[in-house]
Amino acid sequence: MKRVYAREEYCVGCKLCEIHCIAAHSKYKNDLIKTFKKDTNPPVSRILVEENKPVSFALQCRHCDDAPCTKACIVGAMQKDPETGIVTNEEDRCVGCWTCILVCPYGAIQRDERGHKVASKCDLCSENGKVPACVEHCPNRALEYGEEPFYLAKGK
Amino acid sequence: MNYVIIGNSAAAIGAVEGIRQVDKTNPIVLISDEPYHTYSRPLISYYLAGKVAEDKMLYRKHDFYEKNKVTTMLGTKVVAVDTGNKEVVLENDEKVPYDKLLIATGSVPFIPPMAGLDKNNVFTFIKMDDIKAIKEVVMVGNKAVIIGAGLIGLKAAEGLTNLGVDVTVVELANRVLPAILDEDAAGIVQAHLEKQGIKFELNTSVEAITGSEKVEGVSLKNGKSYAADIVVVAVGVRPNTEIVKDSQIAVSRGIVINDYCQTSIDDVYAAGDVTEGYDIVYAQQRVLPILPNAYNQGETAGLNMAGKISIFNGGFAMNSIGFFGLPMITAGIIKSEDENYEVLVKSVPEQGYYKKIILKDNVVVGYIYLNKVDRAGIVTSLIKDKINVADFKEVLLKDGFGYIDLPQELRKSRLLRGGIA
What we know:
The complex is a heterodimer. By secondary structure, chain A is an alpha+beta fold. Chain A has two domains: 1-60 and 127-156, Alpha-Beta Plaits (2-Layer Sandwich), CATH 3.30.70; 66-121, Alpha-Beta Plaits. Chain A contains six helices and eight strands; from the N terminus they run E-H-H-E-E-H-E-E-H-E-E-H-E-H. In chain A, the strands form four sheets. In chain A, strands 1-8 form a two-stranded antiparallel sheet. A two-stranded antiparallel sheet of chain A has the order 2-3. A two-stranded antiparallel sheet of chain A has the order 4-5. Chain B is α/β, with parallel strands linked by helices. Chain B has three domains: 3-107 and 239-305, FAD/NAD(P)-binding domain, CATH 3.50.50.60; 122-235, FAD/NAD(P)-binding domain (3-Layer(bba) Sandwich), CATH 3.50.50; 330-416, Enolase-like, domain 1. Chain B contains nine helices and 26 strands. Chain B has helices spanning 10-22, 44-48, 64-67, 128-137, 151-162, 183-195, 291-305, 376-384, 408-416, and strands spanning 3-6, 28-32, 70-74, 78-82, 87-90, 95-97, 100-103, 107-109, 122-123, 143-147, 166-170, 199-201, 206-211, 215-220, 225-227, 230-233, 237-239, 255-256, 268-270, 275-279, 284-286, 318-323, 326-332, 341-348, 353-360, 363-370. In chain B, the strands form seven sheets. A five-stranded parallel sheet of chain B has the order 3-2-1-7-19. In chain B, strands 9-16-10-11-12 form a five-stranded parallel sheet, with helices on one face. In chain B, helix 1 (10-22) packs parallel to helix 7. Chain B is globular. Chain B starts with a strand and ends in a 5-residue tail after the last helix. The mean pLDDT of chain B is 96. The chains are: A alpha+beta, B alpha/beta. Chains A and B meet through strand 1, strand 2, strand 3, helix 3 and helix 4 of A and helix 7, strand 22, strand 23, helix 8 and helix 9 of B.
């Protein structure tokens, strides 16, 4: 399946990916200005920039083949689509118990406590049906969206 | 080939999903003494408090059995397993033949001997019917005594408090949640629960449940007594091994299984709370009654039953739970047992913040995260993968500990392998 791979050598730590992730999942879909001007309670970013200068990189759900969150979920809300491989959380069934946070080896699941507590995570912008917003808006191509990591694709 | 599964919770469902990854056609018969569609056991306290409606309790959707070609026998009790004739015996003496069998009968409440257990309004707290029985009698302003301050007891305490019940919890250990918290963390959690009005009697146990036909109170070994309309016995659980006691299947504390989730008898598998599997932290066979373990063992058993060789190379204790908005995640060994353990602690009790990591030979073997639980799974994975942390242990307690803090080689190998976690 296609995943987002980070190239830490290219990441400048600008966090635009976080900004665009928030916009992509806000009620003003992909509209940066409305998201940050009008949405009084915008979503949490599902991608996280980790930084310890000079190194930085963005990290989000890896959509693991053998995803531990889907097996640990106490209500069966966290599921991996057998066709697309995308792991998503059915938020209206999620009770915010954070068992997925306990088992996610990447620390890629966020607590969204704006209303009904739910686990929030990267859905590869599957509803948009195109390149994930973080990848599309990365100014230095530090995020790549592909079947395999760039270093494998280049035959290294 | 026909598959028979006894049980209908996480391990049983894991097995159905495991079998169907490999074998799409052969019949699966699933037998459960509970009459319900598979539901989430951990949600029963939410159900009690009215936070989740009964129809939102489902562990899998309504069409799950149909989609997976499972024939269910719900509300049907298995009384024995005849491994010689390869059949399970039902309460009505009917027999169900199997080629491959999974025993996923879960656990039953452990009830310590005490006087007065037979009185009305004494309840346990592990399944749907327990909650339905409590819901029938509970009223605002009732008094409840809960015996046991473990995960189940405190979830019962929270649920009942939310219903306007005056709750007292009695615990034999010196602290709340003794299996998953040390004294310091338990103190923070107890203070938080006391603010909600819950009272505690620690270091003691119930001598007798008093009253005539109905519960009227409890008397404690420390000499005190409490009035009560309801008593919940939540001391712990034990593997529900009743149906195999006359069989050849080896049982220690639970049904003994190997890495393939096979029992000692060919074609008989077991998974979940009923088993005793390998604990990678303690490096010994242990009963681990937690949901992720149950699902993983069930799935592994299912894959093997359908012919795809698969191993579950061991679990360890891990829990994520919260009470009245205070979340906590803990795993593995939570108290150092001798001088071979190294303990790292960061504590800010007034903010309800506590972080503790336990190492042995530079490998993380356990941790407690109180309140700030974000990204705890990274530490869980350090335990699971037995990563040597000698080079970065000083950053383990750092706020926001993450992949940036891992050595570059470890970080890159994990991030670039994408799905092959």
